[in-house]
Each structure stands twice: as C-alpha cells, then as structure tokens.
Amino acid sequence: MIEKRHIGETAVYAAVLMAGIWLFVRLDAYEAFHRWSRAREGWELDELALILPAVLVCLVLFSFNRTRELRKRARLLEESRRELAKAHESLRSLNQSREAFLTTACHELKSPLIGIVNAFELLRMTEDQGEREELIQLAGVAARKLGILVDGVLEFSRQESMAPAPTVFSPAELLASVRDMSLLQVRSRGLALTTETADGTPPLVRGGESVLRLVALNLVGNAVRYTDRGGIRVELGSRDNPAEALVLTVSDTGRGIRAEDLATIFDPFSTTAGGPGLGIGLSIVKRLMERCRGTIEVDSAPGRGARFTVQLPVEVVDAP
C-alpha cells in the first residue's frame, strides 16, 4: 500500500524534474545545445540528449526507493528499540518484585525468631519448673511455626503463576495449630486470644491448607501489632454451602483503620498512620487469595477495631 509520504516524495521529484526542463527551455539552453551538438556530430550528442531524461527518471526512482528503504529500516529500528525498552522495563519490574519478596520473607520469618529468642530469655530468668516447661513448649511451637513459614515461603517463590497444590486437612486442627503458633506472640503483648470453629464446619476438606494457615498467621500477627489492649478472636466456619468455601474471620479490639487507609491497606509497604511494621503482611494475604481464587474483606473504623473476613474455595471430603 502506497503511503501518503511516498506520494508526496514522488510529487517533489517530478516537480524538480519539470522545473529543470522548464529552466532548460526558458534559458534557450536547448537551442545552444543544439548548435553545439551540430558542430560535434561525431560525439553523438543527440542520442545523449535523448538518454539524459531517462537517466534522470531512473535517478529519481532510485532515490525514491532508497528513501523508502531507509525509512522502513528506521521504522524497524524504532520498533526494536521499543521492544528492548519494554523488555528492560519487565526485567526491572521483575527485579523489584524479587527484592520485595526477599523483604517479605525476612519480615515473615522475623516474628517466630523473636518468639524463640524471647522464650529462651525468659527461660534463663525464671526458676519455676512449670514456667520453664511452658516456655520450652512455646519455643518449640515458635520453631515449628518458623519451619512452616519457611516451607510456605519456598512454595510461594516456586509457584509464580499457579496456586499451591490442594491437600486434605481438618479445619479444626488447622485452627488449633494457628492458635498454638500465635499464642506466644499474643501473650507477649498482654492480649487474649480466642478461637472457635463454627457448627456445621466440615471435618475434612481439600484445598489450600498452607495458604489458609499463612493467611491466618499473617492476620493474627497484624492484629497483634495494632492492638494495645483487649484481645483477638479467630473464627473458622463454612459458607451456606460447605462445599463452596471456608470462611476465616479475624477480629481485634485495636485502634481500627481510617476510611482513607482502607483503599490502600493491601498495597505493599502500606501502613496506617503511626503503625508499626513494614506494611507487607496484608499484601501477602491479598496475593495469596488472588492466586487461590479466594476473597478478603475488611470492616473497620477508628476506635472500634478491625474485622478481616477471608473466603477460600474448598471441596468437602468424606471422612475415612
């Protein structure tokens, strides 16, 4: 297809050629050339005069084709440059994502490590045998939590676009494990932790057990950071149709969340005004839910705490 600029170029070349012919005639150059050529008939200048316009036309066509080829190459180079810029931007974004993931992993692994260190510090300070046994037990729970988090982080990093493989698990046992892993962290702030499995919750389901555990631990950890007094309540149940989804609810009596912060609370590195932490725990929860086709909602207001509700698709499994 002929482009408009090519038509314009042809018109310019034709105009230049016509202007040259007009100037040649206007200055009587043709008559002078005729007299000069008659005096030198042996040179066959008449034939040369006939060939010259054809040569000029060929030069015009060559120039036209050459210009079109150069412009085509320039266009291809520009497209290549844009593709390279796009690839560079993708690599830069991937590098930033990896850095954010490393920060996230360090952030999530720090909590159980602190719990273990605190447990052994308290163990060194107390002589009561009952307290020592309890602290050893809590340190063991924190160590197990650390192992589970490491497994979860490794699985999270391996699977860039796929949800974790579903496993068969007991919702009640999962909630009990979340309670055991979070108890030391909650007690260190002088808070109460209440857990409840709702009536009608299926005994066994198939779904993202590791995802639900990581989500619950993150939500409890977030509640602990933003609650100064009172307690945290964790409930696990099922939607109207048990085969559709498990519903996890984590509520606290903390400071609550301002309306202007609700829109960005799940963004990486976003924290409420004056809040502790790096602001990446909730972004992990959001990302996990998106990968597993789940949902998360928050209901909060300043001064009345926060309530996070998570729904994770599962499949009910018959008890063996």
From TrEMBL:
Q: Cross-referenced CDD domains, in alphabetical order?
A: HisKA
GO MF annotation list: histidine phosphotransfer kinase activity; phosphorelay sensor kinase activity
Which residues fall in a coiled-coil region?
67-97
Q: Which UniProt keywords apply?
A: Coiled coil, Kinase, Membrane, Phosphoprotein, Transferase, Transmembrane, Transmembrane helix
Question: Per its UniProt record, what InterPro entries does this chain match?
Answer: HATPase_C_sf, HATPase_dom, His_kinase_dom, HisK_dim/P_dom, HisK_dim/P_sf, Sig_transdc_His_kin-like_C
Cited Pfam families: HATPase_c (PF02518), HisKA (PF00512)
Annotated catalysed reactions: ATP + protein L-histidine = ADP + protein N-phospho-L-histidine
Top EC category:
transferase
Residue stretches spanning the membrane: 7-25, 45-65
For this protein, the record's PROSITE patterns field holds:
HIS_KIN (PS50109)
| Enzyme Commission number | 2.7.13.3
Q: What are the annotated GO cellular component locations?
A: plasma membrane
Put simply, this protein is called histidine kinase
Residue intervals of the Histidine kinase domain = 104-316
